[in-house]
Amino acid sequence: MWSTTDIAMMSRAIMLARRGRYTTRPNPNVGCVIIDSHGAIVGEGWHQRAGGPHAEVHAWRMAGDKARGATAYVTLEPCSHYGRTPPCAKGLIEHGLQRVVIAMTDPNPQVAGRGIFMLQDAGIEVVSGLMADEARQLNPGFLSRMERGRPYVTLKLAASLDGKTALANGESKWITGPAARQDVQRLRALNCAVITGIETVLADDPSMNVRYQELGYLQQQLGEDELIQPLRVVLDSACRMPLNARLLQLSGAVLLVSCQPYPAEFCEALPAHVQCVQLPGIDGRVDLAALLQYLGKSCNSVLVEAGATLSGAFVSCGLADQLILYQAPKILGAAGRNLLQLPPYQQLSQIPALQLIEQRKVGVDNRLTLKIGY
């Protein structure tokens, strides 16, 4: 069904789409390639920033008059509604495209096949499904938000070879090497939000932001003014957040989540970039499902950087989708602190299923990416 040209052009569109992965949220990453009747590329582009032109717009602007009678390859169904930009399906029609090849339909209820119908209704040949799996991998967070109403959840963990995160006395700086810590900064930059717990704040006083000077090679691709800081979320069920916490002093949005109202005087003393929200609790702790539903209004993907209790709770509740583990070539001993606090499983059939997706060296450490099944 698919020609070698079809596969080559969609592969290029997917490659282009990846260029926007640090700057498009909460929009999806999308790439587009336009070829003429001879198979030559006459236009291409990718969605570069939310609120800016979509991938198709960049491609047809580059193609100009050569777009008429041409074929477009798009990694996601062209939009059919007016948002911050006009519908791309309408633009493809107006620029005289003859054929549009789509990797996957858009699960956004505002689109959901309407873009395809609009193109077909205008007499354009539309085929879809080419490299659909690869296209889905471009946008796990966007798809999760559209299909499940919650963000895609990644747990970031760092441990020794014997599965410990710190010595018994709590000392943990630094288990991993500088290359792994740089990689974590890039991981934060990929996510809409970073979640931690109040115990981590009280113990470590973290900043939780992306430090541009520590992005390493990514600085060559991403200007400091292009960096989108993630929302920093602190689960503070009993309202124990100190006003002098470092993360409150740094610019960038912060969300404090509790199960009870914060005192009025505390809220009045907070900087303008800090917001408080009260969500339902379970046994005195924030209901994680309610939290993800709340964040799903605007966040595609979230990164959990927390201690064993909160990280384990995401797994126990079946709410963690992916685990990224930085494993250091160190042994901390039996008395060290454990990686995750999980229930006392009685049978192997009860434990979460882990699928290794990627394993690579990051400096002296190993980085393992695992999907979590329940």
Describe this structure in words.
The structure is a single chain. With 374 residues, this protein is an alpha/beta fold. It folds into 2 domains: 4-138, 3-Layer(aba) Sandwich (Cytidine Deaminase, domain 2), CATH 3.40.140; 140-373, Dihydrofolate Reductase, subunit A (3-Layer(aba) Sandwich). The chain is 27% helix and 24% strand. It is built from 12 helices and 18 strands. The protein has helices spanning 4-17, 55-63, 88-94, 114-121, 132-138, 140-148, 178-190, 198-204, 246-249, 264-269, 288-295, 308-316; strands at residues 31-35, 41-46, 71-74, 99-102, 125-128, 152-159, 164-166, 193-197, 231-235, 254-258, 274-278, 281-282, 285-286, 301-304, 322-327, 337-338, 353-362, 365-373. The strands form 4 sheets. It has a 9-stranded mixed sheet, with helices on both faces. A hairpin with a 2-residue loop joins strand 17 and strand 18. Helix 3 (88-94) runs parallel beside helix 4 (114-121). The chain is globular. The mean pLDDT is 92.
Task: Sum this structure up briefly.
Pfam families: dCMP_cyt_deam_1, RibD_C. This is Riboflavin biosynthesis protein RibD. The protein is an alpha/beta fold and 374 residues long.
Question: Given the helix and strand composition, which structural class is it?
Answer: alpha/beta
User: Which sequence of strands runs across the widest sheet?
Assistant: 11-10-9-8-14-6-15-18-17
- Domains, number: 2
Tell me the CATH superfamily of the largest domain: Dihydrofolate Reductase, subunit A
For the sheet with most strands, the description reads: 9 strands, mixed
Instruction: Specify Rg, calculated over alpha carbons.
Output: 23 Å
Highest CATH level, the class of the largest domain = Alpha Beta
Shape: globular
Known CATH architecture of the largest domain: 3-Layer(aba) Sandwich
Mean pLDDT: 92
Helix content: 25-40%
Strand content: 15-25%
Straight-line N-to-C gap: 36 Å
Low-confidence stretches: none
Q: Count of helical segments?
A: 12
Q: Could you tell me the number of beta strands?
A: 18
> What fold name goes in the CATH topology slot of the largest domain?
Dihydrofolate Reductase, subunit A
